[in-house]
TrEMBL record:
InterPro entries attached to this UniProt entry: Glyc_kinase_flavodox-like_fold (IPR018193), Glycerate_kinase (IPR004381), Glycerate_kinase_RE-like (IPR018197), Glycerate_kinase_sf (IPR036129)
GO process annotations (BP): organic acid phosphorylation
Protein name: Glycerate kinase
Taxonomic placement: Bacteria, Bacillati, Actinomycetota, Actinomycetes, Propionibacteriales
Keywords: Kinase, Transferase
Coiled coil regions, renumbered to chain: none
Sequence similarity: Belongs to the glycerate kinase type-1 family.
Organism encoding this protein: Nocardioides marmoriginsengisoli
Domain of life per record: Bacteria
GO MF term set: glycerate kinase activity
Length: 363
């Protein structure tokens, strides 16, 4: 049988490449004559550039940018012809800041703006920005500052510093990007503000308390009122703590990050003739429908009339919700081997789960 393995990263434990390899290794132990096709995926979050580099080749341009709190961190821009690929998580990823050290009220997206500058310096005329997995929630204000925007309040000192902002001049930033096509490749389609917006939805995982959620959402509302309030309601404006909004202010068009990667890796081509597709991620939950890899892979599998199953660190949806996503069944590493082993030996644990699942699906 031909099995296409197309997972996202398992956040905090395995990259997409490592996850695909582990699933493939476990499957082969049970079905040694299976044809395994590993197609690591990304939704625009951590691993976006690595997955695209493996699929497209190109040149990795190394640089150093500030992390959310201004400390230098190494990063790279992928340049393929006239197109550059940028990953927000390389500059301001949640993984760069251990939980006790997170200061979302002061975190700035300036480093992402500097990654954009590196892409321009490399000669890119089209820049695709994978947006997701960030520790920042500043509406992209820091990014705007790095590109030359000015305001009557500091733009690169975190969301709290935006209080009272009334005027922003984007002329220099827009001039810097003249003639450059910007594409926002986001992992979610949430708006910037409100109950379904960036802060309320993802602020808690970045360390914001209930009281701080209200404060920060209010600051981003002030930012939107000073720029383009209507644009704040656009799908994807809330991606990456509002970096999506800042990019849209500069003329970016939005697409799902998983679609960008699916096209680059030729997922549809790999699905031709497949008998089964296996996808996965760290936590398979209700947010998976909002532009995440399992949903994107499942939709592609449905179009190709190939059954799709998911292997995940944890499965937090029921069978009805799962099938609504286009996934026949989902299996949890934690349920199979326990949380301790799932985190201490993630590749082995995922391979063991794949071997067990192959008893049912490998026939």
């Amino acid at each position: 049988m031909r099995v296409v393995i197309a997972p996202d990263k398992f956040a905090g434990t395995l990259s997409a490449v490592e996850a695909a390899a582990a699933i493939g290794a476990g499957w082969i132990r049970r079905v040694p004559d299976a044809e395994i096709v590993e197609v690591p995926m990304s939704d625009g979050g951590p691993g976006f550039v690595d997955v695209l580099h493996a699929a497209l080749g190109g040149e990795l341009v190394a640089t150093t940018v500030p992390d959310p709190y201004g400390e230098p961190v190494p990063a790279a821009v992928l340049v393929v012809g006239a197109t550059a690929y940028v990953e927000t998580a390389q500059a301001v990823g949640l993984h760069l800041t251990p939980e006790p050290e997170r200061r979302p009220l002061a975190g700035s997206s300036r480093g992402v703006g500097e990654l954009l500058l590196a892409a321009l310096d490399a000669g890119a005329r089209r820049v695709v920005i994978g947006a997701g997995g960030t520790a920042t929630n500043d509406g992209g204000a820091g990014l705007l500052a790095a590109l030359g925007a000015t305001a009557d309040k500091p733009l690169d000192a975190g969301p709290v510093a935006l209080g009272g902002i009334a005027a922003i001049d984007l002329a220099a930033a827009r001039e810097r990007l003249a003639g450059v096509e910007l594409v926002l490749a986001s992992d979610v389609d949430v708006p910037l503000l409100g109950l379904l917006g960036a802060t309320k939805t993802f602020g808690p995982q970045k360390g914001l308390s209930e009281e701080e959620l209200l404060l920060v959402d209010g600051r981003l509302r002030e930012l939107a009122e000073a720029t383009d309030r209507k644009l704040a309601d656009a799908k994807g404006a809330g991606a990456a703590g509002g970096i999506g909004y800042a990019l849209m202010l500069l003329g970016a068009t939005r697409t799902a990050g998983v679609d960008v990667v699916a096209e680059a890796v030729d997922l549809a081509g790999h699905l031709a003739g497949a008998n089964l597709v296996i996808t996965g991620e760290g936590a398979f939950d209700f947010s998976s429908r909002s532009g995440k890899v399992p949903y994107g892979v499942a939709q592609a599998a449905t179009s190709a009339l190939v059954p799709c199953i998911a292997l995940a660190g944890q499965v937090l949806v029921g069978s009805r919700e799962m099938r609504a996503l286009g996934i026949e069944a989902a299996y949890s590493v934690v349920d199979r081997v326990g949380a301790e082993r799932a985190f201490s030996a993630p590749a082995e644990a995922l391979a063991d789960l794949a071997e067990r699942v192959a008893r049912t699906w490998g026939r």
